Amino acid sequence: MTTQPSKKLSKGQLAYEQERARKAGKSLEDWLDSKARAAAEEARKAEPKKVKKPGLLSRLIERAHKPL
To answer: Among positive and negative, which fits the CA dihedral 12, 17, 23, 29?
Structure first.
């Protein structure tokens, strides 16, 4: 019993994904879920990291380089 995937796939895309799922030894639903999880994980990794505030020494050196 398969449910309709959240993203509408054309007949060709559906056949392709079914073949990939079969080769991976998974059901179509499990295959699409794992594919969505992998895409979400990749998107999470692609997020920029927070910029760290410069430390005391870095700020002092930067200030020393500025003209009076």
So the answer is: negative
Distance in angstroms (rounded) separating the CA atoms of residues 48 and 28: 33
Dihedral angle at the C-alpha atoms of 12, 14, 16, 22, nearest 10 degrees?
A: -150
Residue type, 38: A
Task: Write down the pTM of the prediction.
Answer: 0.55
Quick one: angle between helices 28-46 and 11-24, nearest 10? 90
Give the pLDDT confidence score for residue 6 in this predicted structure.
52
User: Closest Cα to residue 21, out of 3, 6, 33?
Assistant: 33
Taken as a whole, the chain contains a residue count of: 68
- Evaluate whether 2 touches 28 at the Cβ level (below 8 Å): yes
What ranges do the domains of the chain cover? 11-65
